[in-house]
Specification:
Helices cover about 15% and strands about 45% of the residues. The strands form 3 sheets. Strands 9-1-2-11-10 form a 5-stranded mixed β-sheet. A 3-stranded antiparallel β-sheet has the order 3-7-8. Strands 4-5-6 form a 3-stranded antiparallel β-sheet. A hairpin with a 2-residue loop joins strand 10 and strand 11 (about 130-135). By secondary structure, the chain is mostly beta strands.
Length: about 150
Amino acid sequence: MSASDPQSAVERFLTFEVAGSLFALPIAGVLEVVERGDSACVPTVSGDVARVMNYRGDALPVVRREQILEVAGGYAMTEEHVLVVTDRSSAVPRLGIGVDRVLGLVDAEPAKGRGPSVVAERRPIDGRVACILDPTRVVARAREVIEGSLGTSE
């Protein structure tokens, strides 16, 4: 494909729901989707911020989605799956985020948004407005949340 080919500007996204909102994450930022398993508290981090679960023999930090994503209140939190997210460039390249429902894969233009928000862009997907996430910003935000929690627990 050449750079002028319209299909060269297409990226694959994993779509999912959290608290009734639609989100999409570039598939390159998703290592795996796993079923929600047992999780444990981290002694130095509040359970309202993050917990850990066993992921292939390693401790996977699962950051509360309310800490990272812009979600509406008033929804029952029914985390059925955990997305194992990576930015592939950091020293701790993965974290878990609980999601209510994984919807599937879609092809769309890459997000063009810039700035500090984890939501790079909002756009229609399958008749709904989806929040397109930036995996690098998601991992960075999770790190900020956890580090901020450590600072307040002393």
